[in-house]
Amino acid sequence: MELRGVLLLTVLQCCSVARGGCEPRLVNIGAVLSQKRYEQVFKEAVSQANTLYGKDKFKMNAISVTHKPNAIQMALSVCEDLISNQVYAILVSHPPQSNDHLTPTPVSYTAGFYRIPVVGLTTRMSIYSDKSIHLSFLRTVPPYSHQAHVWFDLMREFRWNHIILIVSDDHEGRAAQKRLETLLEERETKTKNRNYDNLDQQNFDFRRTPKAEKVLLFSQDTNLTALLLEAKDLEARVIILSASEDEAAAVYKAARQLNMTGSGYVWLVGEREMTGKALSEAPDGLLGLQLINGKNESAHIADAVAVVAQSLQELFEKENITEPPRGCVGNTNIWRTGPLFKRVLMSSKYPDGLTGRIEFNDDGDRRFATYSILNYQQKPGRLVQVGVFNGSQVVMNPQRKIIWPGGETEKPVGYQMSTRLKIVTIHQEPFVYVKPTKADGTCKEEYTVNGILIKKVICTGPNGTIPGQPIVPQCCYGFCIDLLIKLAMSLNFTYEVHLVADGKFGTQERVNNSNKKEWNGMMGELLGGLADMIVAPLTINNERAQYIEFSKPFKYQGLTILVKKEIPRSTLDSFMQPFQSTLWLLVGLSVHVVAVMLYLLDRFSPFGRFKVNSEEEEEDALTLSSAMWFSWGVLLNSGIGEGAPRSFSARILGMVWAGFAMIIVASYTANLAAFLVLDRPEERITGINDPRLRNPSDKFIYATVKQSSVDIYFRRQVELSTMYRHMEKHNYESAAEAIQAVRDNKLHAFIWDSAVLEFEASQKCDLVTTGELFFRSGFGIGMRKDSPWKQNVSLAILSSHENGFMEDLDKTWVRYQECDSRSNAPATLTFENMAGVFMLVAGGIVAGIFLIFIEIAYKRHKDARRKQMQLAFAAVNVWRKNLQPYPTDLTGQLNLSDPSVSTVV
C-alpha cells in the first residue's frame, strides 16, 4: 500500500510540471469512408475539433480506411485497422455511385458487437433504425421513411385529403407506410375533440385530416397494370410512391400507359423515386424531395466529428472512461463505456452544423432534416425547386410556379367524384319501408293517400329483421328513398342501395373483450368501405361526428316517449258514475222518506181526503202506494196523473221535493255529459322528468333500441345513469319490436325519435306520445370523413328546405295521420257508454215479466181459495139439508139457509 501511494504521489507531481498538468488522453476515432480523398477531410475535421474540445483531458486521433469490395473484407478491416487501435467511435459512409446502401452493415455488426458507437454519414435505409439489429448505430441523415413527414405537410399545404399510397413490399416500403399512417392517426386524434362548427368551408377543409383511401403493396412479381387499375377506380387522385429507383421507373411507365399521369393526378415521391432511371420515366409535374446536403460527405464528416468531440467532452467531465477493446481475435468482451457513450451521443445537440441543426431521436436518426421540394418540368427538362421543408413545416416559394401533371398550372383538387355510390339504409318506417319484390323481381306499383305514385328502388338485404338471413332483392320506399332520388337527380350520380346487414344504426363495441372498439351497423359499413353514404334516419351526435361527416340535417326532431293510450272502458254502471254510491243511497232513501211523510201529512191533516168527506170512497184518498208513486214520479219527471196530496202541508212538501228533484236531475245530467262525452284520460307519463322514469321499478318498464343514438345519449348522461341501468336490461333490437311490445302491454313506455313515434301514434290509434321533446337533434346523411360529396349534399338539402321539397316529404310520409280525425271530431256517445241504461230497461222488463207471473200465480191461488170456500159452503148447505128434515115452513121460519144463523143439534 505504501508503494502504491508513493507512485500516485509521483504521478501527481509529474502532472504539476510545465504545460499545466498531465498529457491529454489519446482518443482514437475511426472512419470507413467512400473515397481516399475524404480521409484528408476527416483528419482536418478531427484537428479542428481538437482545438475546440478536450483541451487537457483528451486529444482525438483520426484513423481511417476506405470501403472494401465485400462484407468479409470490410469486417476484417474494421477489426484489424480500427478496433485493434482501440477506437472510441467509427464514422461510416457508403461507396460512391452505389445503390447498395447496406454496405455499412458489416461495420455496424462488428462494432455493435463490442458496443462501439457507429455514426452513419450518408446511409438512409430504414433498417438501420432497428436497434435490435444495429445496436450502436446512429446517423447524421434521416432514413427514407422520414420523408413521410414532408409528404404529410404537403398534403396539408395543398389540402389534399384523399391519397393512394403505393409502396414496395419490402422493409423500406413498409417503414414509409407505417410512418405515414402514424402521422395520419396522430393528426386525427388531435382534431377529434375540437369544435369546428363555425368554420367556413375553406377553413373546414384545412382542418380535415388527410387519409389514405387505399394502400397498395407491390413486389417484383406484381402485375403493375392490374395494381394501377385498382388505384384508378378509387376517388383519390393524389398518389404517393415509395419504391426503389428501378421499381419507380416501372410504375411510371405502367401509369403512363393507363393515362394516370395526366390532368387531375398528383404524384408525390421521395428522393430515390426521382433519380437515375426513375427520373427518365417520371411524369411531367412530379413533386419530389431531396435532402439538402444529403450527399455532401465532407459536411457530414465535419458535423459527425464535432458531435463525437462534444459528446466525448461531456463524457470525460462526468464519468470514468474505460478503455475500448483492442482487436477482435479472442476478444468477446463488450466495451463497458460503449452503451453510455452511445446514449450521450444520441442526446447531444449541435445547432450550428454545416448540414444544419443536428439532433437524434430515440432510434438514433437525424431530426429536423431539411429538404428541397422539387418539381419535374419536362419542358425545361429539369428539376425546379419550388419550396423547402425547414425541419418543421413546408414553405413554398411563391415565385416558382408549379407545373402539375398534364401541364396544368392550377392545383388539382386531388380526387374525382365517383358517380356510382353505394348507399346503405335501414328499415325504419316511415323513412324506409321494405317490401318483397314481385315474382318477376320488380316492385309493385302503389299510390299514396294523395294519389301520388310511390317511388320504389331495389335494395338488397337480409330477408327479415333477424341478422343472418339470406340476402335477397327487396323494394325500398319512403321519406329517405324519395330524398335519395332527389339528390341523385340534383347531383348527377347513380346508386345501388342495400340494407344494413346487422339491422343496427351503429355504435362502438369492444372487440373480443379487448380495449379496441369498432363500429357496427351502418356506421361500421360506412367506415369499412362497404358503403359510400348513409341515407337513413341517422341521428347526428358528437360521437358519430368524430368518425364520419354529416350533411346538414334533412329533418329536425328530438326524443319523445310512446305509451299505450288509456282508453276509458265503459261499464254497465257507467251511467251511475256522476254520483257516488253514498249520494245514490241518500237519493233513494229520500224518495221513500218523502213518500211516507206525504202519506202521513195527508192522512192526519183535517183538510185531507180522509177528513173532508167521509162519504167518499176510500180509494180516492192518498194511500201509501200513491204517495210512493208521486214521489218517484216527481223525481223522474214522469208526470203525475192522480194521487196528488190534497192537504196544504203535504203539498208544501211536494213542491220542496219537486225543487230537490229538479236540482238532482240537472246535476246528474251535467255530470253524466262530463263523464261520458267530455272526459279525456290523462297521460300516464308527463315527460323525461316523470317520477316513474326517474325512479325506475320493475312495475313500470321502459326501454329504447340497443346500440342506437338514444342508447348512447342515456349512457353518456351522468344524471340519467339510473334510467340507463334500468333500460339496459330491457332494450329491444329494433324500434318495430319495441312499438309492438308497447301495444301488447309488455312495455309501458318506449323512448325514441319523435318523428318516428309521432308517425306511429298517428297510424296506430291505441298509441300516443307524451311529454315535451328532449335531446333535440336532427337526421343527417352520413359520409366518410373528407367525402367529396359533403358540401354538395348539404347544399342540395338546404335548397330542398327552401323550395318546399322537404315540406312535401313531411306531408306525404310523416304527417299523414289516420287518428287525428277521430280525436278532433265532436265526441259522441256509443252503446258502450249507455249500455247500463239499456240493461236497466231490460232489467225492468225482466222484473215486470217476473212480477206478472207472480201476480198471475197469486191471483190463481187466491181464486182457487175462493172457489174452495164456495164449494165448502155449498157442501155445508147440502149436509144441513140432509140431516134436518124439517117441514118446509119450519125451515123457512128458521132460515137455515142463512149461514149466520147457528143451529143447535
TrEMBL record:
Residues with site note (Crucial to convey clamshell closure to channel opening): I685
Calcium among keywords: yes
Binding site for L-glutamate: P537, T539, R544, S709, D753
Subcellular location: Cell membrane; Postsynaptic cell membrane; Postsynaptic density membrane
A Pfam cross-reference name: Lig_chan-Glu_bd
Chief site of localization: membrane
Protein name, per record: Glutamate receptor
GO cellular component, one term: NMDA selective glutamate receptor complex
Membrane topology, record value: Multi-pass membrane protein
Molecular function per GO: metal ion binding; NMDA glutamate receptor activity
Family matches, as InterPro entries: ANF_lig-bd_rcpt, Glu/Gly-bd, Iono_Glu_rcpt_met, Ionotropic_Glu_rcpt, Iontro_rcpt_C, NMDA1-like_ligand-bd, NMDA1-like_N, Peripla_BP_I
Similarity comment: family membership: Belongs to the glutamate-gated ion channel (TC 1.A.10.1) family. NR1/GRIN1 subfamily.
Site (Interaction with the cone snail toxin Con-ikot-ikot): R715
Coiled coil: none
Function: Receptor for glutamate that functions as a ligand-gated ion channel in the central nervous system and plays an important role in excitatory synaptic transmission. L-glutamate acts as an excitatory neurotransmitter at many synapses in the central nervous system.
Domain annotation Ionotropic glutamate receptor C-terminal: ranges: 456-816
Species of provenance: Anabas testudineus (Climbing perch)
Ionotropic glutamate receptor L-glutamate and glycine-binding domain location: 462-528
Protein keywords: Calcium, Cell membrane, Disulfide bond, Glycoprotein, Ion channel, Ion transport, Ligand-gated ion channel, Magnesium, Membrane, Metal-binding, Postsynaptic cell membrane, Receptor, Signal, Synapse, Transmembrane, Transmembrane helix, Transport, Zinc
GO terms for biological process, alphabetical: calcium ion transmembrane transport
Positions of disulphide bridges: C765-C819
Catalytic reactions on record: K(+)(in) = K(+)(out); Na(+)(in) = Na(+)(out); Ca(2+)(in) = Ca(2+)(out)
TM stretches of this protein: 583-601, 656-678, 834-858
Signal peptide: 1-20
